[in-house]
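Forum > Structural Biology > Help requests

Title: Can anyone predict the 3D structure of Flagellar secretion chaperone FliS?

Hi all, first post here. I have the sequence for Flagellar secretion chaperone FliS but no way to get a structure on my laptop. I'd be grateful if someone could post the structure tokens.
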Amino acid sequence: MAYASSLLRNPYDTYRQIDVVGRTAEADGPALVQLLYEELVSALRSAAFAMARGQVAVKSERATRATAILFALEAGLDHDKGGDVAVSLHRLYAGIRRQVIDASIGNDPAPLLNAASDLAEIAAAWKTARAG
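Reply #1:
Sure, ran it for you. Structure tokens for Flagellar secretion chaperone FliS below:
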């Protein structure tokens, strides 16, 4: 019964969870990275939106999701094969994670939006590289 009541509380979140599970089921490594970037950008923008509207619970949940995705991206880095690129991405993810935490504490959505914009550029480049 708890499952059914959670569906009724927020059908949009339920749909997104089902959608993400469906997209990850058959995705290869590069497709999963692209999906993580898309989800990360979405989480950062949602956290900023919620922060600007004083929706503390939503802000907290989306910032936590963004942080978890950043940890997942960082954990997936292959420092042996990736060399300087892996080191640069490691620094980027750690820096954005700090921005997310600082922005959440200070209630300033601007750093979240800036991080989302920067990551959207990387996501677009990743998508282009996969398609080409």
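The chain has one domain: 29-131. The helical segments are 2-9, 11-25, 29-52, 56-75, 79-106, 110-131.
Shout if anything looks off.
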